């Protein structure tokens, strides 16, 4: 069972509050989320009123304001804008007379998006996801077959950039397409190393280093510091 309220930041921005009553819950749990949507999620016992929940949120205002004020705002993409993905700057333009998408030059720096203007951003997103998957597969082909996954899937997670299951399936956040190529490559190698070590042991990190080469720590630091910026679009 869930209900909705609204929390207004000092800036005037109205943040939806999603309140969920959980059977067996004993405490109020507060989780501000800035991606993919800016929301506040609350879990509460059935006996706790929504009025109490809103007072509880208000008591945490300073902390909540800091989270939403420091998180990157979503940027809408317009025809003619230049965005960076997969290590290159690309100008995206719209042409409603086209049905598909097409690069207008050999160096892939101008991408023409067809279809209705209302689908412009969605078509850009889908195109980036397709190219990202191709790039991931190219990276995987550079390592020994024993590390290759059984299946690859793409997800849109807020902070977990990749995962590897015990059955050999690997998933990646497609938003890594907005990271520098070496950072994207690091995450791929990280998950491939889990094909041999399903932990973060010394042996695991040694395998990551062997697959990636020099610069692992630099890529890790970049992702820790700048990971939130990968959610600025869409």
Please summarize what this structure is.
This protein is of the alpha/beta class and 234 residues long. The protein has six helices and eleven strands.
Task: Outline the structure in words.
The chain contains six helices and eleven strands. The chain has 234 residues and is of the alpha/beta class. It has two domains: 2-70, no CATH class; 82-231, Zincin-like. The strands form three sheets. It has a four-stranded mixed β-sheet with strand order 1-2-4-3, with helices on one face. Helix 4 packs across helix 5. The longest helix has 21 residues, at 120-140.
| Helix percentage | 25-40%
Give the averaged pLDDT, no decimals: 94
General shape = globular
- Give the biggest beta sheet: 4 strands, mixed
What does the radius of gyration come to?
A: 21 Å
What's the total number of strands? 11
Distance between the termini: 29 Å
CATH class of the largest domain: Alpha Beta
Question: DSSP strand (E) fraction?
Answer: 15-25%
> Could you state the order of secondary-structure elements as H and E?
EEEEHHEEEEHEEEHHH
Low-confidence stretches: none
Assign the CATH topology of the largest domain. Zincin-like
CATH superfamily caption of the largest domain: Metalloproteases ("zincins"), catalytic domain
Which architecture name of the largest domain does CATH use? 2-Layer Sandwich
User: How many domain modules?
Assistant: 2
**What is the strand arrangement across the widest sheet?**
1-2-4-3
Which structural class is indicated by helix and strand composition?
alpha/beta
